[in-house]
Amino acid sequence: MKTVAVISRKGGAGKTTVAVNLAVSAFRAGRKTMLADIDPQRSSFDALRARTIDGPALAGISAGKLFHAKSQAAHDGFELLVVDTPAAPDSDVVQAVNSADLCLLVCRPTFLDIASVARSAEFVRSLGKPGLIILNQAPPKRGGLEPVTVQKAVQALRFCSLPVASVGLRARAAYQQSIAHGRSVGEWDANGAGAIEIARLWENVAAMLAFDDKDQNAKVG
Ligand SMILES: Nc1ncnc2c1ncn2[C@@H]1O[C@H](COP(=O)(O)OP(=O)(O)O)[C@@H](O)[C@H]1O
Ligand SMILES: [Mg+2]
Predict the structure, then answer these.
(1) pLDDT tens for residues 55-68?
(2) How many domains does the chain have?
């Protein structure tokens, strides 16, 4: 079983949005998936509980129970554990990072988010954990041109000690609408631009986890 921790020391960066969308993507790709929400706000737990169709298994737990939940999930044959985390306290985030095979660092294209993610990237690297920075809530292109804020964010993130995902997520109403119904953007609008970027992000993450695409349509056991 592989464990992915979705982290950001900034509230509102998009941890829950990324965790829910990737957990549902993995589930739909045939991976037996659990989402563990260790944020006391329980946002992803509440979002996925609203699903009226099958989806990832759910655990709303404290950070202190993560180790046990991970062992149990591995024992029960889960292939992927996605951990949604709070912005604080430090100790809870550290437990999530320690439990992870891969850390996803979510970052908006703002000065303060980038400064924060740079520190988090150093920390993740110092623990020897692989990581991937995901730019989220990027404003849309205007007249085919990337907004200056996004260009500058991408340049600045290159100086972080972890790679940046080749696909960023734009600010889209579909992310807000879909999660309110416990759905991924792909389930909400299969042909939408959000669906395409999440599919590409999942491919990127699956490759880093060394998940093989060949059994993407396999049934969940
Ligand atoms: N790419 C996006 N486009 C539009 N809204 C987004 C996007 N990502 C997150 N949001 C919205 O921003 C808010 C904070 O996102 P959330 O995932 O809850 O962040 P966090 O878990 O880091 O606090 C939510 O209202 C969410 O719907
Ligand atoms: Mg959250």
Answers:
(1) 999 999 999 999 99
(2) 1
